[in-house]
Amino acid sequence: MKMGVKLHKQAGFSLVELLVALIISFLIMFAALGSASFYEANRRNTIGGNTALENAMASVANIQKDARMAGLGITGSNGIATCSTINVYYNGTTTNATAYSAVSITKGADDQTSDQITFAYSDPIGTVPVSTLVCKNRNKDNQDVCDDTNANGPPAASSDIPVLSTVGFTASQVAMLVPPPDLKPAPDKVPLPCTVVGITAVQDASSRIQIHPTNNCNVQDKDPACWNPPNAGPFTKLTGICNDGTTDCNNNTKNIPPGTRLMTTGPIRWVTYRINDQQEFEKIEQTGSAAGLTSVIAENVVMLRVQYGLSASASSSKIIKWSNTAADQSTVKAIRVVVVGRSPQRVKDKNAAGTCTATTAAPTHGLIVTEGQDDSIAIDLSSNPDWRCFYYKTTSMTVPLKNILMQTSSPN
What we know:
The chain has helices at residues 15-69, 402-405, and strands at residues 85-90, 93-99, 103-106, 116-122, 131-133, 160-162, 174-178, 194-198, 201-203, 208-210, 261-264, 268-275, 280-287, 293-299, 301-311, 319-323, 332-342, 392-400. It has 412 residues and is α+β, with helices and mostly antiparallel strands. It has two domains: 51-88 and 98-122 and 269-405, no CATH class; 124-266, Elongation Factor Tu (Ef-tu), domain 3. The protein has a six-stranded mixed sheet with strand order 2-1-8-7-11-5, with no helix packed on it. The longest helix has 55 residues, at 15-69. It is elongated and about 120 Å long. The chain starts with 14 loop residues before the first helix and ends in a 7-residue tail after the last helix.
């Protein structure tokens, strides 16, 4: 019997069909790749813009924090700094009669140069605000009054300060000797500087406060003696005038003029913000007269501009003018800040001529150097030939000086 194999016809794709399918697949793939590239470019652009904005916002947020601290512990009832100048010694470094205000703006040289701003305030942690009158000596018969005739002799030691009351004062506090504001001795005829001191002991029985000088101090333990210069000085004016009416005197509490007050403040701090040559937004924190600690808050920040918000008088809290200068610090009630941030990465988008198109017009900072000029001055970014290849974001904020406003009596 003859046996055979029965073949079945099988259906499949022809060569033409396969080619068509491949072409369609390639078209779909190219379309998907094009969309992915578009979305990726869009994502990079969005991230770049967001990063520029984040850099600017981080800078403004740090300024805002310290602006609200400005003046804490150093302002009087009229909202201005207790002293216009200050003597500070801290751990071997001295500054004599340094200008002293809650906020100080150093303007850039022109409209294309960033400003610098410094805030001053005291660290209130662990400090109870108290104040007392400094005496030449205490009256032996009546412990409630000073003996300004000095008939009972000078203090036992140059580091002892006779005071009207020791209530509220404790060892380890940082305080300030504040001379009478109307005392303006010859030849300068200007108010005397305040002097920061560290309280090393309180003698309740004799109503004396000791500011013991030292040649060595423990900064880590916040030793109050770090604020007191050694026995030999180096202040030429402790509070500016000696008992004999001269201004040439060494560091000695016997030279404190009548009417001087001792007030607790806490450690004095200065915080400065600026942009360095690498377009980094820097914060410099300085305690006393010691060298400042510099930290980078944000990168790719191209401009910082600041202005004072001025009121009509020291007793008013209403801003009537924004200015680059403040002749009267008692009228400074707020600041206006503008920061321009840049994206960190270069954007590849270009036009037919090969020019980057991420930014077509330079940003403006809005705050001018010469008052009366147009505020919309474009920032000159030409030092970087590829400046158009980056995104820029401008952030602005008005910040009230809270500690100054709290001392202001009138809202008008």
